[in-house]
Structures are given as structure tokens and as C-alpha cells.
Amino acid sequence: MNIYIETFGCTFNQADSEIMAGLLQRESNQLVYEVEDADLLIINTCYVKQPTEQKVVNRIRKLYEEYPHKNLIISGCMVEIDQEKLKKIAPDASWVGPHKLKSVPDMVKSVHAGETVRFTGYEDMSKVCQPKVRSNKFINIVQICEGCDGFCSYCCTRIARGKLHSYPVELIKQEVGKAVKEGCIEIQLTAQDTAAYGKDSDASLPELINAVTNFDGKFKVRVGMMHPKSVKDNVDELIEAFKSDKVYKFIHIPVQSGSDGILADMNRGHSVKEFNDIISRIKSEIPEISISTDIIVGYPTEDDEAFQDTLKLIEELQPDFLHISKYHHRPGSYSSNLQEIDHQIMKKRSKELNELKAEIAFHNNTKLVGKVLKVLITNVGSKGGFLGRTDSYKTVVVNNASLGSFVNVKITHAKANYLMGNVVS
Question: CA-CA distance, 282 to 89, in Å (whole number)?
Fold first, then answer.
């Protein structure tokens, strides 16, 4: 059977799609990359933000209209978060929740036979060492745990992903070892909160990083997003693990607001001072590290003073990467009971913060012009050339290189979002 898989959302969701593809291919199904060539469509949904929800909904509706004869399976977070909407936009579709991926091959057979099948709910499925078809043969995404132990007031992801479930260190090592032998040169450790890894067992993220970087070979490890409240109790151990030459000097640690009052309303479990202390300790030991953080603009209780606190924090932090989201109610979240602030105010604040973001990113990148940096080439550019990452995970565009190679690049130009350079011997 020819099967088309389309993925929305985060790295974790991409890994779910890779597992579904691996399981299906093992059953002699053929993966295709055009809807027209498929007998069956799988849409792996994301639901964390309202704009993404709208993209997902529009895509499902379009597929229904244009390909009514094709079987459709909806997977991902939407399946657990908003089944009522699914019933309206895809009444005949089959569903599979994020915890039921092992059911996909049998499900596909049933759907192809004309049945409507819906597998939802929670189970402790290990997503390590599963069959996998990588979207990039040089990059292996490793899901180290699923779910979280937080209760952020604005978030619906916990509804979909459930409580924290960490996977064994030995299994993760087994997957990484296999990936490196198969030629992967980037290992991405991903989770809803990587720093929460092991809090439900006797392991820890620093221990895991140390285990993964012990393998021989040339490869880099990217550690995914981590919650400040999960980091603050073992900062020193994390710093030591990040000092490995095999770990990208890059940390994604969302603060979400520069106001302690808003952080309390969000139930984040950390203060601005605790966040700043974490960053200061890390940068004092690893000065070259890139800092990535997230801000939610327009939380229902955010006033002008709170927003100014956020601007001040970002000005002081000077992050290399900043992800900005305008607040929207999410199904099942506590904050959806609150009154949203005026959307024009939200739009104005977002614009101001985005302008600051671009200014900071360009300033930080300009400081790298003229330097020779080691770059790992992982992708072909959509507009030509090749894309790679510096040791601090900044994107570099070069004219000519070999995929999967480490090259020295002299940086010639800086943009807010990327660098440009020439390969040197």
C-alpha cells in the first residue's frame, strides 16, 4: 500500500512520524511523498498553538475536499486534545493517539478494508529503538522521555502527552550507537522537557548526555528544550555535561515572561531571578554558548508594566534565538477561563518584541563575521547551497560542501537568522 505522511509541529512529533513510517515500511508498505500517489494519508497533528491548530484544520478540510476517495488517518496531539472538533472536520476519519503508534500497521490494514478505527488513550509505550525512517539520513532524533511533570496554566500539551515517562538510559544508548554506526552525524535528544528526564526514575539528563557522548566517532549532540524549573536543581552537572566537544553549545530554555507576577499566574514554577541565575552560571562556564528562549506575549493578566519587564529581560539577556507567540486560549487549559486581552494591544507588543529580537540577533551574528568556525553540514538549502551548524548551533549557508561533513568556514556575512561563509582548508 502507498502511504503518505505529513507532519506538523515539533521535533518530537517529527520523531513520531519517523516511527510510524518505520513500522509501516517493516510491513512492506511503500512510503510516498506526494498525496496524489497515496492510497492512504496520515496527518500527524500539532495543537500547541492556535495558529498551528488553524493550519492543521485547514489542511484536513482541504484534503477532505480534494481527495474524498482517499482513506485518512489523523494522528498526533489533536487526537487527544480536541476530539469534538475532529468529529466536525473529519467525521469519517480514523484516529490514532500519540501513545498508540504500535497499532498503526494493523490500523492501516483495517482502514484499507473500509473500517473506521480510533485508537486513543495512554500507555507506556517506549519510543526508543523502534523501527524508523529518518527524514534526514544524517540526523537521528531520540525521544528520551514523553510527557512532563509541570502544570503550566496556558498549555494543552500535557493533555496529549500525559505524565512524565522517561526511557531507560541503556535503550537510548543502544539507539544512539546504532545511529552513529549507520552514519548519523547529529543526534537530537528531544522531549517536552529534556531536563525532566529521569525525575520519574533514578537517571538524569547530565548522566544521559555523558553516556551518549562516550561513543566513538564524529558526531554532535543537540539537547532539546528544557524547563527552567527542571534545570535549577542540577545546573552544575548539566554544565559539565555540556562541556563535551560532542555537545552543541546551545541551550533552549523558555522563560515565557520577564514578570514574576505573570510567571506565577502561568504556574511556571520559577522566578525571573532563578532563570537569570541559571543563564549566568552556564555562560560563566561556557561563554560561547547560544541562548534560545521563548516568550508568550499577551497572557490574560499581562499589563503594560509586565510587558516592559519582559522587554527589559530580553534586552539584558541578548538571546541568540527568541521564539515569540501571541497568547491564545488552548482547549483544556486553566487560562482559557480568563478574559483575553485586546488583540490590537497584543499585536503591538508582539511587533515591538520582534523588532528587538531582530536587532539583537543581527548584533550577535555580526560579531562572528571574519571568524573561521567549524561547521557540520546537514542539509541542502531550499534556495541553493548547503546548510550547516556551528558549534553554537547557528545556521551557516555555504556554496559548496559535502553533506555529513565537518568543514571550516570563514564567515563573510551576517543576517538576523543565519550566517554566510566560504569553506576554507
Answer: 47
Torsion sign across C-alpha atoms 366, 372, 378, 379: positive
Residue 344 zone, left/alpha/beta (φ > 0; ψ -120 to 50; rest): alpha
List of domains in the chain:
2-119 (3.40.50.12160), 139-366 (3.80.30.20), 372-424 (2.40.50.140)
What one-character DSSP code corresponds to residue 35? G
Gap between the Cα atoms of 361 and 415, Å rounded: 8
Strand-pair category, 250-252 with 94-96: unpaired
Give per-residue pLDDT as tens, 312-350.
Answer: 999 999 999 999 999 999 999 999 999 999 999 999 999
Q: Label the pairing between strands 372-380 and 406-414.
A: antiparallel
* Residue closest to 308 by CA, chosen among 369, 262, 246: 262
How far apart (Å, rounded) are the C-alpha atoms in residues 205 and 223? 9
d(CA 251, CA 229): 14
pTM, 2 dp: 0.96
Calculate ∠ Cα 222-228-230, nearest 5°: 85
Instruction: Report the candidate in 146, 178, 177 with the shortest Cα–Cα distance to residue 163.
Output: 146
First to last CA, the chain: 48
Q: Which three cell numbers stand for residue 8?
A: 506538523
pLDDT tens digits, 28-59? 999 999 999 999 999 999 999 999 999 999 99
The helix/strand/coil state of 231 is: helix
* Alpha-carbon gap, residue 203 to 205, rounded angstroms: 7
* CA 122 remoteness from chain centre: 21
**Which letter does DSSP use for residue 36 in this model?**
G
Q: Where are the beta strands (DSSP E) in 53-185?
A: 71-76, 94-96, 118-119, 139-143, 145-146, 165-166
Q: How many angstroms from the chain centroid is the CA of residue 173?
A: 21
Helices (H), 27-134: 50-66, 77-81, 83-89, 104-112
Residue burial 156-169, b: 16+ Cβ < 10 Å; e: rest: bbbbbbbebbbbeb
d(CA 381, CA 346): 34
- Kindly give, in sequence order, each residue whose CB lies less than 8 Å from that of residue 61, ignoring residues fewer than 6 positions away: 89
